[in-house]
C-alpha cells in the first residue's frame, strides 16, 4: 500500500481527500481487486502516520459511492461491482489524444469558425496595465452581492427552481426596461427584453434571425473583433465602413454595400476609437435603414460611464420605425464573471428572438438573474455606477495627465468622453504591433489599433484601459511605455 498511496502533507488538498483518491485509483486499476479486504483503520493509521478519523472519513466516502462495502464483523472490502470500472482511462492516453490539432474532419464552416479570433492575442493572468474594456473588479460590491445570493439560496421559491421563460426572469426584465427608459432613453416594455449571455450571444442571435449565409453587414472600420467573429460564424459578408470623428460614415456605407441587411454600430462610445456618433449621423442612418428595410444592431456596451455630461440617449430611442435591435451587458459595468446581458428587440421580432434563444441554450442561468434583479431593485446598481463613474473619471484623468507629461510629442490622444479606455495614435511612423509586443515583455498589456481594421488604410495606435488600475499603477506603467514609444 505504501507504493501506491502518495500522501503530500504540504498540499492544499485535505489528507482525507488524498487518501480517498489514492484508494479509488488503486481500485480502478485493479491493484485492489474486487473482494479485497482492506486493513483496519487502526492498522492503516499506524502504517501511514495519519489519524484514524482521517482514514474513516475517506473510507466512509468510498463506501457511500459504492467502491467499498462494509461487512458486519468482517471488515471493509472492495465492492464486487465497481461504479465506474468501465470508464476509467489512463491520463496519458487522454493527453496523447488531445495533442492532435488536425481539423481534417471538420466541414468548411467548422474550419472557418475554428479560425475566428475575437482577441488579438491571449490575455495573460494576472491582470496587467493597460488591459482595456474591463471594470474594476476590486470595487465590485461583493458583500452586497453575497448577501443577496445568500437570501435567494436560503429561502428558495420552489416554483422558480425549474426551467423558465426563454426571455429571462420577468422581474429582471421589468427592472431593465425601467432603467433603460430612465437612464438611456430606450423605449421598450419588459416583453421586448431578452436576457442573453453577453454581447457575443446578442450578435449571434441577431445574425441567426436576420441574416442568410452571404448577407452583407456594415461593420465599423476599425471595429470590435467580437462582433465580427459572431458575424463570420454566421457566414455573413462583412462590409467595412470607415469611422470618423462623428461615427460611422453612412454616405460611404451606401456606396460600399447599398443592399446591406444589417448595420452593427457602437454609437455612444465607438470601439476602439471612443468617438460618439453625432445626431446628424444617427438620423441619416435611421433614414437609410428605413428606406432600405435593413436593421441596426446597437451595441451600448459601457455608455453609463460618461465623464463630461449626462450619458447620451440611445439610438434606439430615436427610432420610430422599430428597426433597431439594442444590446447591453452587465459584464462591462459590473463584473466580467457575470455573463449576463440583454437585448431589446422590436415588438414584431419578439417571438422569433425568443425561439432562437430557446434553441441555443433554453435560457440564461436563473439564480444569477434573480440576484441581479434584487441588486437593481434595491438601487445598488445605480449607486455602484455613480461611484465608479467618479473613480474612473479620476483614473482617466491620471492617464491623460501622465501621457501628456511623458509622451506628448509621440502620441495623440483620440478625443473621447466615455468608456473604460483611451485610444492614442502613434506618431513618427511607429508600428503599434511591435510596440505592443515589446510592452508585453515588460508587464504592460495594450491592444494595437491596427488589428481592428479590415481595410489596408490603417492608423497605428494603442488602446489603453484604465478602469481597473490605480493612479500609481498608471503613472508607473506610462513611464515604462514611454521608453518604447519616444
CATH superfamily annotation of the largest domain: Type I PLP-dependent aspartate aminotransferase-like (Major domain)
Mean pLDDT: 89
CATH class of the largest domain: Alpha Beta
| CATH fold assignment of the largest domain | Aspartate Aminotransferase, domain 2
> How many structurally independent domains?
3
Structural class based on helices, strands and sheet pairing:
alpha/beta
Task: Explain what this protein looks like in three dimensions.
It is a single chain. By secondary structure, the chain is an alpha/beta fold. The protein has three domains: about 70 residues, Arc Repressor Mutant, subunit A (Orthogonal Bundle); about 240 residues, Type I PLP-dependent aspartate aminotransferase-like (Major domain) (Aspartate Aminotransferase, domain 2), CATH 3.40.640.10; about 100 residues, Aspartate Aminotransferase, domain 1, CATH 3.90.1150.10. It contains 16 helices and 14 strands. The chain has an eight-stranded mixed beta sheet, sandwiched between helices. Strand 4, helix 9 and strand 5 form a beta-alpha-beta unit. Helix 8 crosses helix 12. The longest helix has 27 residues. About 35% of the residues are buried.
Summarize the structure in short.
This protein is α/β, with parallel strands linked by helices. 40% of the residues lie in helices and 13% in strands.
Looking at this protein, list some descriptive labels.
486 residues; Aspartate Aminotransferase, domain 2; 16 helices; Aspartate Aminotransferase, domain 1; 4-stranded antiparallel sheet; 8-stranded mixed sheet; Arc Repressor Mutant, subunit A; alpha/beta
